[in-house]
Amino acid sequence: MIRRALRLVGKIWQILGATAFILIAVFLAVKIPYERFYENPMLWDQVDNNDGPHFFWLDSDTLSVVNVRYDRSSRDFIVTERRLSAAEARSEMSALGQELGQSQSAEGPACSFQADRIAAVGDIHGKYRHFVALLQKNGIVDAGLGWIWGSGHLVILARVYHPRGPF
Q1: Which end of the chain is less congested by CB atoms within 10 angstroms, N or C?
Q2: Where are the domains of the chain?
Q3: Backbone dihedral angles phi then psi of residue 106, each to the nearest 5 degrees
């Protein structure tokens, strides 16, 4: 009878230990990141949350330029879009290329290829679901993630970190 009671107490102790472990894991997985990212305004002030410009050809004559800017005072993201003609877009892309060429150095030869259509996407920062939604809404992949964009090319841009600095 005592052995039975001790086994019962041992089982209860195991259940309580497992429950405590799960509660601590949930606390660490939810509460701490929440405090760090949402309740700590200093962190938001230290992180650069701006992204863009992102260029999207709407048709052969019109380009959409999308920028995402983080407004520190309202702690909200502001998305702006400008539509440019093909001539304005080429001029702006040329200026942007010159600006990047002066401020960043890339090693290796430049590559070029021909494609009917090109979609360029910035670094997705682990936002896989958003990335898939973007590809699906723009007719690049179907619901099963099958390629439906024909001979179009998808370019994913990412900042590469190197010991000498980002480029």
Answers
A1: N
A2: 2-43, 48-156
A3: -115, 135
